[in-house]
Design goal:
By secondary structure, this protein is of the alpha/beta class. It has two domains: 175 residues, Rossmann fold; 259 residues, no CATH class. The protein contains 19 helices and nine strands. 31% of the residues are buried. Bound molecules: NADP nicotinamide-adenine-dinucleotide phosphate (NAP). The site of NADP nicotinamide-adenine-dinucleotide phosphate (NAP) has 22 residues, from helix 2. It holds the Pfam family Ferric_reduct. Belongs to the STEAP family. Keywords: Copper, Endosome, FAD, Flavoprotein, Ion transport, Iron, Iron transport, Membrane, Metal-binding, Oxidoreductase, Transmembrane, Transmembrane helix, Transport. Its main location: membrane.
């Protein structure tokens, strides 16, 4: 039984022509949100529902709700806002849906849930209709919040160009930019899109967690357990700030090096192969693709290091030490100085070292932040390719150099003191210097004029031995 239900507003307004009318099957969250946006954009909206009477109170004002068959007759374009499991209700409607454009909005709960994509399944149920996959990457919530707050891109795919154009026209009128992804075979990819869970962040996050855990336990043994075992001193309270403030810069510096190491390795690989026309190994490709995430995580750790450093003066331990020093030092110091007939000398070298250490750290962090800002898509869009590569490559390596120098200055002459190597192990900052030093040395080799000239030629398409391999290539095009 087809029951018609009009909202009070709709009764007074004449029905828009079919081209300006769209149908939405399903009055659930997605159907209602989409219907509201369509109404706001000026479309006439007819909902198709199993229970038009009870659904009429749910739908937005200005929309109409009918049974599925009647609703499908009112518009050429039909959005299917129903879960895929219930698609079989469309089979009896196959005749009415012939020639109509059906937009499949559905998503799944997990990847590969069904043997075929939902949109392909829909097409098999209603072979006479033109199925277009689209709008599934939006959420009902974002649709309701309006164009200012929502994701602005809509991905679509389908076999029929006309059907896709009809859907694109609606998407544009709703304030979205529509991206045609090709044929219906791409539907599975679009359906997997909302199920992605930070795919490019996984490897960098694993590296960050792995490095943090490894260095935390290493420093725990070297700093806290060593003091307990050898001097019976309980300094476990240092775990919260001192240890954290050692782990953060170590992880940050290693991750920044990991950000620049694949680029350097790729250059050496191209030099070795003498061509850029061969694919990099998969592992290197994957590594290069997550450099931005590695860099942003490195910046996060650097930021934590800055915060931990800034709170040092307000720590109880530090204030207590300072107080004890003020109370005890002048008397004991003056007595010992009088006894030994000496005065405290200002050590210019130590002052230079301290100031340089701090200054390089500040400059390095400043550039770090600049790198982070210029990796934002909105900022990248305002930069030319040359500006982007200048910042990310040249200033990036400079950042690595400054941060590495900052760490070397932290170590200073302690590298040579045997007391630094507790239980014959090097301190964490020494270990973390290995990778950045290697990256910087390799980069130095790459920018030497003769190597740089060769790598530039390779990147411009020159191939080593190409002339011998294919003599025709070297012949002039015009005799
Ligand atoms: P929902 O709230 O569960 O609503 C689905 C609607 O389908 C129901 O309100 C009902 O409408 C209809 N329906 C239920 N069982 C049916 C059956 N056996 N036969 C025919 N129709 C039936 O789901 P939803 O959240 O709106 O999602 C709808 C579709 O959009 C799903 O495929 C989902 O994957 C997709 N999607 C949802 C979102 C979101 O944010 N919610 C985002 C992207 C894509 P009537 O009672 O009026 O018949």
């Amino acid at each position: 039984i087809e029951c018609v239900s009009l909202s009070p507003m709709m009764e007074a307004v004449p029905a828009p022509p079919e081209s300006e009318r769209v149908c939405v099957f399903g009055t659930g969250d997605m159907g209602r949100s989409l219907g509201l946006r369509l109404l706001q954009a000026g479309y006439g909206v007819v909902f198709g529902s199993r229970r038009p009477h009870s659904s009429s109170s749910l739908i937005p004002h200005g929309a109409q709700v009918l049974g599925h068959a009647a609703a499908s007759q009112s518009a050429h374009l039909i959005f299917i806002a129903v879960q895929r499991e219930h698609y079989d209700f469309l089979v009896p409607l196959a005749n009415q849906l012939k020639g109509k454009v059906l937009v499949d909005l559905s998503n799944n709960l997990r990847k590969n849930q069904y043997p075929e994509a939902n949109a392909e399944y829909l097409q098999s149920l209603v072979p006479g209709a033109e199925v277009v996959k689209g709008f599934n990457t939006l959420s009902a919530w974002s649709l309701q919040n309006g164009p200012s707050d929502a994701n602005r891109q809509v991905y679509i795919c389908g076999e029929s160009v006309e059907a896709k154009q009809a859907v694109i026209a609606v998407a544009i009128k709703l304030g979205f930019s529509a991206l045609d992804q090709g044929f219906l075979s791409v539907a599975r990819e679009l359906e997997d899109f909302p199920l992605q869970l930070f795919p490019q962040w996984r490897l960098p996050l694993r590296i960050a967690i792995g490095l943090s855990a490894a260095f935390f336990f290493y420093l725990l043994i070297r700093d806290i357990i060593y003091a307990y075992v050898t001097q019976s001193k309980d300094i476990s309270f240092r775990i919260m700030v001192s240890l954290a403030n050692k782990v953060c810069p170590i992880v940050s510096l290693i991750m920044l090096s990991l950000c620049y190491l694949p680029g350097v390795l790729a250059s050496f690989l191209q030099l070795y192969r003498g061509t850029k026309y061969r694919r990099f190994p998969d592992w290197l490709d994957r590594w290069m693709l997550c450099r931005k995430q590695l860099g942003l995580l490195a910046l996060g750790f650097a930021f934590l290091h800055v915060l931990y450093t800034l709170i040092i003066p307000i720590r109880y331990y530090v204030r207590f030490k300072a107080l004890v020093l003020i109370i005890n030092t002048p008397l004991s110091l003056s007595l010992s100085q009088i006894r030994e007939n000496r005065t405290t000398q200002f050590d210019t070298t130590t002052a230079w070292r301290g100031d340089s250490y701090l200054s390089l750290g500040i400059l390095g962090f400043g550039l770090y932040v600049l790198l982070g800002i210029t990796s934002l898509p909105s900022v990248i869009n305002t930069l030319s390719w040359r500006e982007f590569s200048f910042i990310q490559s040249k200033l990036g390596h400079l950042t690595l150099l400054l941060c590495t120098a900052h760490t070397y200055l932290y170590g200073w002459n302690r590298f040579l003191s045997s007391s630094t190597y507790k239980w014959y192990t090097p301190p964490g900052y020494m270990l973390c210097l290995v990778l950045p030093s290697v990256v910087l040395l390799l980069k130095l080799l790459l920018i030497t004029p003769c190597v740089d000239r060769t790598i530039t030629r390779i990147r411009q398409g020159w191939e080593r031995g190409a002339d011998q391999r294919n003599p025709k290539d070297s012949q002039p095009l015009i005799p």
